[in-house]
Amino acid sequence: MKTTVAIRKKLNKEFSKLIKKNGSCYFDKLPIAEINECLKKYEFELLDEDGTKFCAFFCGDHGKTHINYGKENDIVGDSIIVFSWYKMPSGRYEIIVYAS
Known about the structure:
By secondary structure, this protein is α+β, with helices and mostly antiparallel strands.
């Protein structure tokens, strides 16, 4: 499956709204479910490499990962979700998320 530039722009706008709705890019927990909800507005969802529903553990105070997305076992091949996090001394997480 492929996406269009317009769809990626819409997804990135949804991610931006998520951050603005929170008031900042700092979250009490990693907002994976909220990111998935942004994708669901366009009938996508986070997927593992084998096309099944996304399931993962995020370890450490900071990191960066790339997460597949698509529709029911059909992974988008020309775009990926880039997600990074950093745990601040306050205990909140600074996040960056976008569709490449």
